[in-house]
Specification:
Blueprint lengths: L1 H7 L13 H32 L20 H26 L3 H33 L9 H5 L6 H31 L9 H26 L1
Helix pairs in contact: 2-6, 2-7, 3-4, 3-7, 4-6, 6-7
């Protein structure tokens, strides 16, 4: 009986995730759950916008001057999107350089990726300031993002700042991860035989970039 059980016991190498590093598997599981969060937010945005479009009125709220609907900074945000895409490219080049033992190029490209994230956050902060000034009169009791989220009956302010803010938080976390990885890179932790940590950070960064492309298309272009 014991011999039969041993014969039918599955070999460890046959496990479906046996060849996947634990760190990579954990990151994939996290990204899968995080994708569900973004899916829910994007779904709510789409439902609200579709329902408002059925009323025949503009989804974008009026500016505080009452001269017309606010204008989304498509050109500025397009530049910001391009910057984030370029940072994804430098992330790939950083991992490629690490595998080739080109440590100076590895650290340089990783630093460029981190600076791309910092630049994205700076431009988004400028855009938020512009949106607040467009939505809330300067002499309002509360001239803030919270006040801008309450402007307009369509719910645009609430959904816009929630979606872009949630994504911005992910970018901030990515910048922190990149800085941590860069510090370890200068300490000589990574090499052509030990690159899983950089690969995991890269997975997260590519996910953040992909989500932003979806947000940019849905919010600014459609």
């Amino acid at each position: 009986m014991e011999a039969a059980m041993h014969a039918h016991r599955p070999a460890e190498g046959n496990h479906p995730f046996a060849a996947v590093d634990n760190k990579k598997l954990a990151m994939w599981l996290f990204l899968g759950s995080d994708a569900m969060s973004f899916t829910g937010l994007l779904g709510a945005y789409s439902v609200l916008r579709t329902a408002w479009a059925a009323t025949g009125t503009n989804w974008l709220p009026m500016n505080h001057e009452g001269t017309g609907p606010i204008h989304l900074p498509q050109i500025l945000t397009g530049i910001n999107t391009f910057l984030l895409i370029c940072s994804s490219v430098t992330m790939v080049l950083s991992l490629k350089a690490l595998r080739a033992e080109q440590m100076a190029r590895f650290r340089g490209f990783l630093f460029a990726t981190m600076m791309g994230g910092v630049g994205f956050l700076c431009i988004q902060a400028f855009e938020w300031t512009h949106m607040v000034h467009s939505l809330v009169p300067p002499d309002a009791p509360s001239h803030s993002v919270a006040a801008a989220m309450r402007q307009g009956p369509s719910g645009f302010g609430a959904t816009f700042f929630t979606l872009t803010g949630f994504h911005g938080f992910h970018v901030f976390c990515g910048v922190v991860l990149l800085g941590w990885a860069l510090r370890r890179g200068f300490k000589g932790v990574y090499s052509s035989k030990n690159f899983i940590g950089i690969e995991v950070v890269g997975l997260y960064w590519h996910f953040v970039d992909l989500v932003w492309i979806l947000l940019f298309t849905l919010i600014y272009l459609l």
